[in-house]
């Protein structure tokens, strides 16, 4: 296995499976933040201390205990990656922007199917991330917890009896976990219910963000719903709360889709077919328009109105149309205008069944 393999393909192996409620929930994610007791947190550490942390944590990965639960994996020092490689890994959600900007002793441990990403010397010493297709937040938690147990056996975590696990950002203190589901909610947007739903979500201790987390816009009707509170609740309470709220959002989206089909079928079908036509023939396409029209096509596929586009193709295009992956695909540095041209070209080819780029 080479590092090249992780940046060449837009679709991670784990995304090729369809999980429960996959027509609405794109993915479920657990992220665990941990620090070592006797080392300064990354923002205060010296180059030597950061190196010591990386050596200690990568040694755990070499013990052989991870393989039985995550399968084959590779440890990649960030120093071995180009800036474009790192940008692509951010676009695939395999590393965070914070780790991509780490110029010292940062590393990532990636499982072969890319469902597990263990980041070293990010904002915290250790970030364990597990991704599952569809609505499988409890399964993702079980895997992440098992990985956390392996590291805790070998590493002395920074832990306080009253405050729990200590983290660089105060909002992660306590359990140190962030649980999230990525949801496609076009019907709630089209029926003007989304603001009411999201307002209710924030009132029960959850946060709503865009595709790339905090500070990102909810392009393409994709919303990331996650816990806000990590202190004062147990891990299971956090997971159960998110699961219950996400289940309600799923039911609201299903009801809104049913209402669209009953009350506005012709209009919604026209919208979907127009978007498919534009995506199939446009010569220029910016990222915002691409996200919105791909959302329409995904809704059409889910409603059985547009069977020509498979879910895997649409999942691929979520990543393939991003700036970094476009440049990786065409092997050239692209201006914003050139990216819009290449994005349109790539979408046309993918929707017509060609797979010259970003091959599966």
UniProtKB/TrEMBL annotation:
Superkingdom assignment: Bacteria
PROSITE patterns: PHOSPHAGEN_KINASE (PS00112), PHOSPHAGEN_KINASE_C (PS51510)
Residues where ATP binds: 27-31, 93, 127, 178-182, 209-214
Motif placement: RDXXRA motif of the pArg binding pocket involved in allosteric regulation: 339-344
Keyword annotations of the record: Allosteric enzyme, ATP-binding, Kinase, Nucleotide-binding, Transferase
Phosphagen kinase C-terminal domain mapped to chain residues: 24-256
EC number: 2.7.14.1
Catalysis: reaction(s): L-arginyl-[protein] + ATP = N(omega)-phospho-L-arginyl-[protein] + ADP + H(+)
GO cellular component: extracellular space
Keyword Transferase included in the entry's annotation: yes
Functional description taken from the UniProt entry: Catalyzes the specific phosphorylation of arginine residues in proteins.
Protein name: Protein-arginine kinase
Protein species of origin: Paenibacillus arenilitoris
């Amino acid at each position: 296995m080479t590092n090249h393999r992780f940046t060449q393909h837009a679709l991670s192996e784990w995304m090729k499976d369809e999980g429960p409620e996959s027509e609405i929930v794109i993915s479920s994610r657990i992220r665990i933040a941990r620090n070592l007791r006797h080392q300064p947190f990354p923002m205060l550490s010296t180059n030597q201390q950061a190196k010591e942390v990386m050596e200690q944590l990568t040694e755990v990965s070499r013990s052989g205990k991870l393989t039985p639960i995550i399968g084959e994996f590779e440890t990649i020092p960030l120093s071995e990656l180009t800036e474009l490689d790192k940008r692509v890994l951010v676009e695939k959600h395999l590393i965070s922007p914070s780790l991509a900007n780490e110029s010292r002793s940062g590393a990532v441990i990636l499982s072969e199917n890319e469902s597990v990403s263990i980041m070293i010397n990010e904002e915290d010493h250790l970030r364990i991330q597990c991704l599952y297709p569809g609505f499988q937040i409890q399964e993702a938690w079980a895997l992440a917890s098992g990985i956390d147990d392996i590291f805790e056996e070998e590493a002395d975590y920074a832990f306080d009896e009253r405050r729990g696990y200590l983290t660089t950002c105060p909002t992660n203190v306590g359990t140190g976990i962030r649980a999230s589901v990525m949801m496609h909610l076009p019907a709630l947007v089209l029926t003007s219910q989304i603001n009411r739903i999201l307002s209710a979500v924030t009132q029960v201790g959850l946060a709503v963000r865009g595709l790339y987390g905090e500070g990102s816009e909810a392009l393409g009707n994709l919303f990331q719903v996650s816990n806000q509170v990590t202190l004062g609740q147990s891990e299971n309470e956090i997971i159960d709360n998110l699961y219950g709220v996400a289940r309600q959002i799923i039911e609201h989206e299903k009801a809104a889709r049913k209402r669209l089909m009953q009350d506005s079928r012709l209009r919604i079908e026209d919208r979907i077919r127009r978007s498919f036509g534009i995506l199939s023939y446009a010569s220029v396409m910016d990222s915002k328009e691409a996200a919105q029209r791909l959302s329409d096509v995904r809704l059409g596929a889910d409603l059985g109105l547009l069977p020509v586009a498979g879910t895997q193709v649409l999942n691929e295009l979520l990543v393939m149309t991003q700036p970094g992956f476009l440049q990786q695909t065409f092997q050239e540095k692209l201006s914003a205008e050139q990216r819009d041209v290449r994005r349109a070209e790539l979408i046309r080819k993918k929707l017509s069944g060609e797979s010259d780029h970003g091959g599966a």
